[in-house]
Write a structure and sequence with these properties.
With 309 residues, the chain is an alpha/beta fold. The chain is 41% helix and 19% strand. It folds into two domains: 3-111 and 284-298, ATPase, nucleotide binding domain (Nucleotidyltransferase, domain 5), CATH 3.30.420; 114-251, Nucleotidyltransferase, domain 5, CATH 3.30.420. α3 packs across α10 (285-298). Keywords: Kinase, Transferase.
Length: 309
C-alpha cells in the first residue's frame, strides 16, 4: 500500500498524519515540541521521529514525508542539519523528509491553489507570498524587537503602554487598564504605581507581553482604548498581507494564528480590510503537510485528506 506522512512540528507539540493515495487517514502520531529554535536539536529531531513512527505503526515505509516546521532557518546550520539527518537515518524512514515552513503547510491546509498569500499572527506576525506552494518572499516577521506589528506581542505591549499612560498622565481607568492592573497585581492608588507595572512587565522575557493580548480582545467591545488598539492592529496586519502580494493579484489569502481567529476582534477587522479578496482560514497545518506529501508522491491530482475528528 502506498502511503505518505505529513508532520506539523510546532513549539509545544508535534503531530504526524499518514495518508493513503485516496486521502484516507491510516494513522496518527504525537510527540513533544520540535521547533529547533526553542528545543535542543536532538530533542526536536527525536520528537519528529517519534511522531512519524507512531503514525506509521504497522504500515511500513512511506513514499514521501513532508515536515512543516516552525524554525526551519535553524536547519541552515550544518551541525543542526546533521543532527536531523542522523535522526532520519536511525528511524529508518526509507525516504528523506522534505522540510518546509509551517506557513507553507498552513496555506496548503486551507486551499489547493498553488499561489497566494499567507498571513500569520500569533505571538509574532509575518506575511508570505506563496508560489507553487512554496513561500518565495516575506513581509514582516522581524521578531518582537524589530517588528511583529499587530501580533499578540504587539497587542500586549500596547495594552501595558496604554495603562502606563493613564497612570502617568491621568485619565479614566477603563476596562482595559483595570484588567492589566489586576493581571499584574498593581494597585493604581499606590505611590508610583507605574514603577510597579514597569517592573512587573520586565520581570519576564519580553515576548511574554503577549499574555496581555487577550485582555485587549476581551475589553474591545466596551473600552475605546482597547478598540483603538484592535483597529490599529488590524490596519497593520492588513497592510502586511497586501505588502506580500503583487499589484492586482487575485489569489487567496490564508489567515493563520490566534490573533486572526474568526471570533477575534482583530480577525474580524482584518477580514473586513481584505473583503475584496478570497480570504480563507487555516484550521490544521498537519493536513496541509500530509497533502503536500501526497502531491510529492502521487502528483497534482492527489485528493485532499479526508478530515477526521
Amino acid at each position: 500500500m502506498s502511503h505518505v506522512v505529513g508532520v506539523d512540528a510546532g513549539g509545544t507539540a508535534t503531530r504526524a498524519l499518514a495518508l493513503d493515495a485516496d486521502g484516507a487517514v491510516l494513522g496518527t502520531g504525537r510527540a513533544g515540541g520540535a521547533n529547533p529554535n526553542s528545543h535542543p536539536p536532538e530533542q526536536a529531531a527525536g520528537a519528529i521521529a517519534d511522531a512519524v513512527g507512531a503514525a506509521l505503526a504497522g504500515l511500513g515505509g512511506p513514499s514521501a514525508i513532508v515536515i512543516g516546521m516552525a524554525g526551519t532557518s535553524k536547519l541552515s546550520d550544518p551541525a543542526v542539519a546533521t543532527v536531523f539527518e542522523q535522526a532520519w537515518q536511525r528511524a529508518g524512514f526509507g525516504v528523506a523528509p522534505r522540510v518546509v515552513s509551517d506557513a507553507e503547510t498552513a496555506f496548503a491546509s486551507a486551499t489547493a491553489e498553488p499561489d497566494g498569500t499567507v498571513l500569520i499572527a500569533g505571538t509574532g506576525s509575518i506575511a508570505g507570498r506563496i508560489r507553487k506552494r512554496r513561500m518565495v518572499s516575506v513581509a514582516g516577521g522581524y521578531g518582537w524587537l524589530l517588528g511583529d506589528e499587530g501580533s499578540g506581542f504587539w497587542l500586549g505591549r500596547e495594552a501595558v503602554r496604554a495603562t502606563l499612560d493613564v497612570l502617568t498622565r491621568g485619565g479614566e481607568h477603563g476596562p482595559l487598564v483595570d484588567a492589566v492592573l489586576a493581571a499584574t497585581g498593581v494597585d493604581a492608588g499606590e505611590p508610583k504605581a507605574y514603577h510597579r507595572l514597569i517592573t512587573a512587565a520586565n520581570a519576564e522575557r519580553p515576548v511574554r507581553l503577549a499574555r496581555f493580548a487577550p485582555l485587549v480582545s476581551e475589553t474591545a467591545g466596551r473600552d475605546p482604548v482597547a478598540a483603538a488598539i484592535v483597529e490599529r492592529a488590524a490596519v497593520l496586519l492588513t497592510e502586511l498581507a497586501l505588502a506580500a502580494r503583487e499589484p492586482g493579484e487575485r489569489t487567496p489569502v490564508v489567515l493563520v494564528g490566534s490573533v486572526l481567529g474568526e471570533q477575534s476582534p482583530v480577525g474580524i477587522s482584518v477580514r473586513k480590510g481584505l473583503a475584496h479578496l478570497d480570504v480563507l482560514a487555516s484550521d490544521d497545518g498537519v493536513f496541509g503537510a500530509a497533502w503536500l506529501a501526497a502531491v510529492d508522491a502521487f502528483g497534482e491530482d492527489a485528493p485532499r485528506p479526508n478530515r477526521v475528528p
